[in-house]
Amino acid sequence: MAIPQFNYTEAILVIKPLFLFVMAISLYAIFVFKFYRFLSRRDILQLNLDKHNHSRLRFIRRATSFVLYCGKFLIVFPILAFFWFLVLTVLLTMMAKGQGLDGILLVSMAVVGSIRVASYYNEALSTDLAKILPFALLGILLIDSSIVSVSGSLANLNAALARWETMLYYLVAIVLLEFVLRMVSTIFFNLSVLAARAELEKADRARAHSFLAQD
Fold first, then answer.
1. Cα(77)–Cα(57) distance, rounded to whole angstroms?
2. Among candidates 38, 49, 143, which has minimal Cα distance to 84?
3. Residue 179: closest CA among 105, 83, 81, 86
């Protein structure tokens, strides 16, 4: 039986693609992990209004809080939503062969909106929904990378950017959706707080009556 001879050059040629694949998959997985965890959170921006508010006047404090609140959803959130939209558009153009650009744009923004709706219902659900497309693309790449065309995806992305009016309409709709979800969530939260306070007051009155009855 012949003893295998170790060849340093051959070993490098064999191992190099392995390390490249490991690094590429790891970096992609880390990006997807950060991406879907951030997108699926209900409270995307952890903004402490009191931290940026040092006024002693009650009216000024409330006005400052309102301005920061509006800035959070009217300035920062649209930028983040547009970034997510572009990422999903690129992923879909790699996966969807033969589908028109209008359909890809519609599905991309629909996925963003669905994830935001799900985050207000259950963050575990929104997390699962947010990672479907990125990890599906990873599975496709691992099985058959020939079906993915990077140049075609970039061309579709440039064509999508040229349709800025459609993207603007979608972006306005997503911002309005987020605002409505936030308002509804705030209303239900306040109602639950009021209900909890009413239950506590009812329990306190019941205990007071029981003490009086014992006396």
1. 29
2. 38
3. 81
Q: What is the CA radius of gyration of the chain?
A: 26
CB-CB neighbours of 200 under 10 Å = 10
Instruction: Please tell me the distance from the alpha carbon of residue 44 to that of residue 38, in angstroms, as a whole number.
Output: 7
pLDDT in tens, 13-54: 888 888 988 998 899 889 888 888 878 887 776 555 555 555
- Per-residue buried b or exposed e for 165-180, using 16+ beta carbons within 10 Å of the residue's own CB: eebeebbeebeeebee
Q: What letter represents residue 58's amino acid?
A: R
CB 97 within 8 A of CB 147: yes
The pTM assigned to this predicted structure is 0.72
CA 3 → CA 28, 93, 111, distances in Å?
40, 50, 57
Neighbouring C-beta atoms of residue 119, cutoff 10 Å: 24
Tokens coding 212:
């009086």
